[in-house]
Structures are given as structure tokens and as C-alpha cells.
Amino acid sequence: MAIPRSYKISDNLRWATPQYQVIAPAEARRGSKSKVLSARRCCGLLKTGRGDFGGTMGLWKTIKSLFASGGSAPPDAPRLKAGNESELSVSLRALQDGEQGWITLSEARYLFSHMDDQYAFGEMDDAGKSNFGAFAAQNENRSSVDIMPVEGRAYFTRRIGA
After folding, report:
1. 100 exposed, middle or buried (CB, 10 Å; 0-12, 13-18, 19+)?
2. How far apart are CA 156 and CA 147, in angstroms?
3. Is 46 helix (H, G, I), strand (E, B) or coil?
4. 126 exposed, middle or buried (CB, 10 Å; 0-12, 13-18, 19+)?
5. 53: left (phi > 0), else alpha (psi -120 to 50), else beta?
6. How confident is the prediction for the chain on average, in pLDDT?
7. DSSP state for residue 2 in the 8-state scheme
8. Most confidently predicted of 15-19, 31-35, 55-59, 129-133
9. Comparing C-alpha atoms, which of 45, 40, 50 is closest to residue 20?
10. Cα-based angle 14, 54, 26 (whole degrees, multiple of 5)
11. Burial zone of 153 (CB within 10 Å; 0-12 exposed, 13-18 middle, 19+ buried)
12. Of the candidates 34, 35, 54, which has an alpha carbon nearest to the alpha carbon of residue 44?
């Protein structure tokens, strides 16, 4: 049985595009096989010879393209090795001027603070913040440190010329 479809010829185009009748799924269940196929075609559930007619992935790509930025997102800063202070120092020296690297706050707490996880580098941990800042400012490290508790990371920014 042929699927009924009508063709509309556009004024400025020389080819015809099929026009599908939109049928509610409940109505299609009560109707004939052609109505079911029409409903599937309209909802993108049936592949036509011209590729997908809509479909979930096409809709998802369209939504993603609306929120996409103009360029690609910059890659995440590299994670630094922080087994001990000398390993972290070597990792910091490998960064270029202005480049960022990060370690987890639990690694930073292990190396520079004597307080528990929830209190490390907080208001009451002046010694931990002082140790952390002094390590970053050392002559061979030459970096600044930014603690980001929401991300659970501490970012180092290398400053060779400073």
C-alpha cells in the first residue's frame, strides 16, 4: 500500500518536497497502517531515502549548536604531579610563562596543611595558606596559586618574568 503524500512545488525552486500530514500518535494507533507510517515519518522514527526526517539526534545537534560558542573551548590546564614538594616543584618548572596547572585540594592539604579536609586553607588555616603561598613564590617555582574549593582544585600560574 502506498503512503499518501502531497507534493508542493516551491515558486523559486525547481524540485518538489514531500509534505507530510501531522497525525497525533493516539489517532494513528486507531487508524490505518498509512497513518501510523505518517506519524512515524513526522516524528523522525522512520528513515527515508533522503536521510533522517528530523529525529532525536537532529534535534539534539540543533540545540547544541544554539548554545555552542564561536570557537572551540580551550583545553583544560594540565594536572601537575604532586606526590611530594620536589615532584610538584619539577612539574611547576615545566610550565611555560603564563601557563596554568592544577593539583587537587586533598594533595595540597597533604603537602602544606595540617588541618582536616573541610578546614584546610579556610579562614582558620593561616599556617596552611602561608606554607602554600610561600612554596608557590619560591625562586625556582615562580608562580601564583588560586584555591578553587568548589572545583576541588588549586591552580598554579607560572610567572617567569615576575
Report:
1. middle
2. 9
3. coil
4. exposed
5. beta
6. 74
7. P
8. 129-133
9. 40
10. 115
11. middle
12. 54
Nearest alpha carbon to residue 46 among 62, 27, 67, 23: 23
The rounded distance, in Å, linking the Cα atoms of 80 and 115 is 22
What is the pTM assigned to this prediction? 0.53
Other C-beta atoms closer than 10 Å to the C-beta of 162 total: 10
pLDDT in tens, 91-119: 999 999 889 999 999 999 999 999 988 88
**How far, in Å, CA of 80 to CA of 156, rounded?**
9
d(CA 117, CA 125): 11
Rg over alpha carbons for the chain, rounded to the nearest Å, is 30
Query: What local confidence, expressed as pLDDT, does residue 38 receive?
Result: 52
Q: Alpha-carbon distance 36 to 23, whole Å? A: 8
pLDDT at position 52, please? 46
Region 8-18 average pLDDT: 49
Instruction: Please tell me the total number of residues recorded for the chain in this structure.
Output: 162
